[in-house]
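User: Teach me something about this protein's shape.
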Amino acid sequence: MNVVEEIKQIQDEIVKWRRDLHQIPEVGFDLPETAKYVANELSKMGIEYKTNMGGTGIVGIIKGEKEGKVIALRADMDALPIKEDTKVEYASTNGNMHACGHDTHAAMLLGAAKILNKHKEELKGSVKLIFQTNEEGAQGAKAIIKDGALENPKIDAVLGLHIGSIFSEVGDGQIGVGYDKIMASFDRFYIKIKGHGCHGAMPHVGVDPVAIAGQVITAFQTIVSREMKPTHPAVVTIGKVNGGTAYNVIPNYVEIEGTFRAVDQKQREMIVQRMEEITAGITKAMRGDYEFEVVWGAPPVINNEEFTKDFVETAKGIIGEENIIELKEPSMGGEDIAYFLNEVPGTFFFLGAFNEEKGIVHPHHTPKFNVDEDVFWKGSALLAQGALDWLNK
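Assistant: First, the predicted structure itself:
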C-alpha cells in the first residue's frame, strides 16, 4: 500500500483542521479547546483514545489486524503567548498564536491517523497517536511519558516532524533528515547577584551588584570560547538583565536570565557547573552574594541511525530522493521529542514550508509566522507510510 494518493485526497481536510486549530491557540499544559477538537476528530474516525495525558494531551491507538510491534507518531499542540499579525482570515483573536506550527503538526497527524485507521487490517502491529501539550516549555513530553504514553502497549519506536524553516537548506516541500544528534538541549538559568545598595556618589559604602554582574556576564563568554572543544557546538546566551530603579542609586541586586545549549549531555552538565562556579567565585571576590537556579529543559535530540535509514527509503517513494536533504550539522534549537528518543529508537525530521513567492518568509516565534499549506499532505504521508513500512518490515 502507498498512501500518497489517499492522503492527497484529504489535503483540503488537513488544511481545514489546521485552520480551525489555528484560531484557538492555547499555551502550556492546559489546552482544553484544542484537546476537545482533536478528540472530536478522532471520535469521528472511530479511533480509540485516552484524554488528560500529560495535562490535556491525548493518546490514541490504531490496532492492526496482525500482531506486531508498536510505533508512536507524535505531534505537539501548544501555542505561544504572542499576538498574531498575519492578517489571514483564520487568524487567532485570543491573544495567543500558533507561531511555531504546532497546529500543523496536529493536523498532519490527524491526516495520517485517518488513512492508517482506514487500512488497519494491513498493519502488522499498532500505531499510537500522541498529541502532546507544552512542548514550548519543554515539559510536555516528560509529563505525557510519566502518565503512561509509552506503555500499554509499550512502544518500540517513534516518528515525528517539525514544519517551517529551522534548517534554511531545506526548501519548500523538502525534508531534512539527520542520522545522529540533530538538535541541542535547551535549558534556562536565573541568577540573582546580591550587593548592598547605596548612593551612586558613594560606592565605597556599598557593594555594587551591577559591577559584579558585568564581570559575571563577561566571564560567561569564555565558557564556550575557551573551555569547550571548538568542534563541539554549544551556546551560552544572556537574554535578560534587570537591576536598579534610578540613575544615581546603586541597587541591592541585579537579575540575569538566559539559556545554554549543547548537543552533548556531558557538555551540557559542564556548562551549568562552570556557570555557577564562575558566579560564586566572582561574587565572593567582589564581596557580594548570589542565587543560582536552573530550569532544565529537554536533552539533545538524537536520531537513531538504523531507523532513519529505513525512513529515508520510505521518503524516497513519497517525495523523491532529490527532495531529501541530509543535515550535516545540528540546530542549536531544541525540542522535547528528545525525551521519547531517549527511550526508544526513532527519527525527528523537518518539513520545509517557507515560500517566498507566497510571501511566507517570517521566522518561527514571530507575529507574522506562517507556513505553506500545500505541503501538508507530504507530512501526513511521511508519517503514515513511515509507520506502515516500519511495522511491516
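Now, about its shape. The mean pLDDT is 97. The first helix runs from residue 4 to 9. If you'd like, I can walk through any region in more detail.
User: That's plenty for now, thanks!
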